[in-house]
User: Fold these one by one.
Assistant:
Number 1:
Amino acid sequence: MTVLSISAQDTRSSHQVAFAAVNAAFGSIGRVCMALDGDFRVRHVSAELDRLLGEGSAGRLLGEPIEQLLGPELFGSDGPVRQALLAGEKREGWRALLHGAHGARLLSVTAAPLMHDPHGVCDPTARYLLVLRPADEEGVEGVGAEAAGTFVAPGLVYRSPSMSRVLRLVESLQHSETSVLITGESGSGKEVIARTIHAHSPRRNGPFVAVNVAALPGELLESELFGHVRGAFTGATRDRAGRFAAAAQGTLFLDEVGDLPLHLQVKLLRVLQEHAYERVGDDETRRTDARIIAATNRDLRKAVADGTFREDLYYRLRVFPLEIPPLRERREDIEPVARLLLSRVGARAGRALRFSPDALRAMLSYSWPGNVRELENALEFAVTVSRGQTLQPEDLPPEVVTARPPELAAAREPPRSLPPVQDERSTLLAALEANRWSRCDTARALGLSRSTLWRRMRALGLEPRTRSRPVVSSGGGDASGGDQRGGCSSGGPAAG
């Protein structure tokens, strides 16, 4: 099997022979083998890559940064795979959607630090080993066999079977220009999916133009979408082309399309049917070739039944429906999404951060009603208040820390009912009083570890001054601060 190298050495050199042997072994089972140097540039690559991406692909890649092939989301300066390799860790089952002579191909990526043999046969400049394989060789259930996520586009990482199914549908659209309707809760990533569809479609070299329908009143929205001519209304001092014109040969993304006023629904229906429209205040009919991708968090079937959304427009938009599951229904995605977001938030702050086990448990216990957007906001908060490199539960917003694990909440009621509260301090104080200041029972009721509960008590001024009486600004009570049951220690902070 042919082996390519940026080196001008004789191909019979021991380094080339060693890589040729590895390459032949992986190539026999349809795998692409690559070696990277310490700067993450391609040092060796098997010609098997030509079979996936087209003739000459392997040769052109030699000496280039690996992020040019697999994207900055994986191998950029703050990419999670790059960071893992720098830390001496391996990653398996990560995905990248690549474009080649034969169209787009979803690949599974495995990366690990390269172990050098004691005889010095391996190229000493090769630091990391990558193995690529077609992702369609594995079933949906096989995705995420390890704790790493799967990337296919900027801002998109997943591990769950439900998102695997969504991305397989997205992959099937790579040669299509049909209209797509994306549904899902706010913050679930509908625009990210829309951008992914555009980036891997025949229109990827054209513009992606996004319009939030709910952000503008009807009279301004009409001008924003279709444009206007000078003098069409007060303040129209010059002609405006509009978003349909701006999206020529590209994609127009209509976010929150369920909020589109009825009179504009008629105009949008005409565009979908006839690819024609008029600017506000103009009689000239204009043509558009923009592809429409729409998204909404509303139930459009119900809106049709209520008469607030046109049925014919609904079916015109819903040629290819995609439903994005909320984050609470794909909890296995929380950790990889959180790690990706933390790397980005940390990079903006110039900090390299990681999660403590307790912080991860707290995030996994929270239902994230605001989905990925709320998760990102929570991490922005945590990075702002954190003083160290490791994020602790107390760095997270109070509502995340005090949430009970969903499985515990569904399985049983709290040992004692808690009174209504307005903030984290009141929550903890009420829980402590309801459980007679037993930290063991209080931690269990709140779904926290005892060490996390202790840290929050100290941070909020609820730390017992002695074993017999807690210090509280509200006057406290006569309940004992000690735990006398079930192996719960009453002394200082619990280990752990």
Number 2:
Amino acid sequence: MRSDRPALHAASGTTADLVPGRLRAARGFHFFARIGGQATGNEVIVLKDLTNKTVLVVGMARSGEAAAQLLLKKGARVVLNDSKPLESFNGKLDALIAQGAQPRFGCPADQAWAGCDMMVISPGISVDAPFVRQAQAAGIAVTGELELGFTQAQGLILGVTGTNGKTTTTTLVGEIFKNAGKLSYLAGNIGIPLCQQALAAKPEDVIVVEISSFQMETADTFHPHCCALLNITEDHLNRHGTMQVYTDMKFRAFANMTPQDFAIFNYDDPGVRGALETRSVRAMPVWFSVKTPVPYGAWLEGDELVFGTPQSYRPICRMDEIRIPGMHNVSNALAAAAMAAVCAVQLPVIRYTLRTFAGVEHRIEFAGEAAGVRYINDSKGTNVDSTIKAVQTMQTNTVLMLGGYDKHTDFDPLTREILANPAIGHIVVYGDTRSQIEQSLVRLGYAGARITRVDGSFESAVRAAREAAHPGDTVLLSPACASFDQFDDYEQRGRVFKDLVKRMGEGTL
């Protein structure tokens, strides 16, 4: 059977000839020649030799467990610590303890670090936490799981950061490289610790890292060969305090890059453009835009995605060929295409991937249908800007579910977008932020009669959305908030939502 999948090394549609001539010789511009060489300037790595180091791992969720496993494999003496008792992990950590890790549970970290050379903290722990400062004052080196994983990783390291679109773009980049014949690993904030992937990846492989601002607090030597900054909007101010600090954390991903690396920037995003006015990045700038041609990069030329320069560019695919919905995903596709193109992945491979990539779980994901009502799971909408993108895709009458953990967010921009889209016919507010969201909606003119406030459980909120919907309507879960008031993470919230939808379809809810 003939496949429409392109040859991995097609003779036409290459990208190397679209790079400005002055760069080609300087960069040794060929992905398949560079990938095994780790040519990213990372010859000196502080944490490289872990043999016989005593390391305290604080926080035993996914990242802590992966960090401990890597440390044991590299010959370190590992101490496990969590404020919860060991019994609460239900045997999940028994294998680490059997390999020699020492358990110190049910106590604060400062009661567990005696004799330790280094401490690895989870992304959920701020570097400003008192015990972290105390450890540093006591001469204990403090690092994070992502930084630790980077120091031990082999292969080509690529990064994706920004406020929104990270998971979709990271996954899409990974799919492009997979279709280019490379073994690609996804890691980081996407939910798979970099330490875990560092144990698996070989020098010829690719690791695409989704980077959060939390992880960058402890990233001192992290150095991707190519990194994209998708956008910058208000988020995580409860952690970082100010937008300047939050933006600084985003730009730390570029701090160790050199002129031989590539920095992919959103030409359309005022947060990115504004930040670049006061910050310098040494990597080669590459742009993407859905609005205008860019000096070098990927943009929309009419209804076609193209890559190159305004003087010399090649088509990638038509906008309507991209499977994932919404203009925000066109922007994500351009970013992914630019990342792949500067690494010399050939255009037919990029084209094939954009035409076949169906999206990621928990991001504008069809969850099911019950009683003629469609349910959309956008649990990954954990901030205002992300939910705005989801709202913009709604064209039929929609019941929108908003609420969750309070990150000290201004909901007015979301309210204005809701008012601009007549498809948003009813809103259910729930969780810790229900009052703030309701106040924003009413103050700016959204009819109070079209708002249902739920003071109970998440299931009660889903029931309320069902009651507000009619056959032919859509219920959109896009909370604009984190999930920590009722769930472990947005993934658990999305899974619970899909399970409730399934039960509705079966008539058991």
Number 3:
Amino acid sequence: MSRAALLLLLLPLTLTACDDAAKDDEGGADTAGADGADGADGADGADGVDGADGADGGPPDADGDGTPDADDCAPDDPAISPTAAEDCGGEVDEDCDGAVDCDDTDCAAEPACAMPTLTELFPTWNVYLAPTDITLIGSGFSAPGLRVEVGGADCPVTAVSDTEAVCTLPPGSTWGRYDVIVGNARGERTTLADAFTHLAPMYAADGRAGTAGNLYAIDPRSGAVETVAALEVGFTGLAFDPNGKLFGVQSTEYGDEALGSSGLYTVDPIGGAVSRIGDLVEDLGDGSVTNHDSIPDITFIGSQLYGWTEDSDQMVLIDTATGAVTDPGSDYLSSYGSGLASAADGTLIALPSAYSPAYLLDPATGLSTEASPALTIPEGLEWESGGAAVFANGDLYKLSGSTDSEGLSSTGALYTLDLTTGTFSATPVSTLPFYVDALAAPLP
């Protein structure tokens, strides 16, 4: 066959092959179209190989927050993802780190998430029979779930800011000194140790015959008497100031001077520890002094401490910083060991420990007016072993002493006294231990 004839035979085959190759290059339906079934139009089949979104070839992100569904703790919520900021009060784990709100370290600087601190509180005491509003000062109080405890008792919070909170402490069941604890919902707690004191409604102490006996707590509702602690000093007078601080006077005329010279003391109403302030000494203004060693009772009106002295049978003023005694020019009264009591309205009353009348005293001058009607002493009631008196919850209480067949002081008793009638209660509120002479009640 000639060369020319051979070329004519091969020409159709060559044209067919070239035509097929051109179709491949153009991405026709024969090849690439089949592979790109997921593509939108078959023309861009290569883009649709991976998938579900078909947008840029990345992994699925159903909520469009930029975090793949596989890495998103809330794939259907665009506000929650590992790249979101934690809302420290939203009660939701917005940033997917497993910690919610203040438990998240991202919230450590938020005031509402700070660990609570407690620096001070007021008041620092109450009489345990009554509810009390306590104001607490510190920080971190606006954290969720703020809780306050006083001696293990819940003190429900009634008002709060980040630096100040108020809680209402319900009545307690006994006297004592207690920790105050502030905590939050995360279980973080701060403690102010021995910061709050429950005082008993009334206290008494031994004093006469040189007795360094005990401090007693009295519940006048039931008449119950408890021993608080042993005392190093025998006291003839006790009194609380407006801040709940207990003072006592020791008068050596009534007993053994081995217990020390007469003086003014502070007394811990919970533990019984005593601290001497100074001697009960009066400067007479002429270079001489007199020691008042026979002060049977004391009482406060406001911050001023008053005493009754049997050295001259008159009212005196006592400096609580030094124990110094001042005579304001008081009347001289034959009271035979008077009790001294002050009412909430500032009335000052001198009450006898024998058969003398009661007197109303002017706190500024000590001038006296005999109370009317006269006191009616219950038959058989003796007063020689004690004369202390005190107002508590509006009632006037008076200590008495009874004697045995040999005329010796044996027991004491606590009575109420109605000044409008001059009569004592028919039966004692409490029976008290031997030689109890001092009586005090926290001021309202």
Number 4:
Amino acid sequence: MEVEEYRKLAENPITFMLEVIAPRMFKALRKPSSPKAYTVLIKLGLDTKKFNNVMNFISFETELYRCIVFIKVLSK
């Protein structure tokens, strides 16, 4: 990052990440309104949804296991 960019980052981190950092990191996002950029963003959204579903399942499994252990402790 350039020295001048730190102020912009501090003022509005989300906008800075979307408009400056992401295009530097991902070539497809350098032209924000291009079909390629839209395709990448849609894929990102779908993959994020899949990730969230997996994490929710893991959380559910963990809570279920805790309940089973708790019931076993109480039944002793």
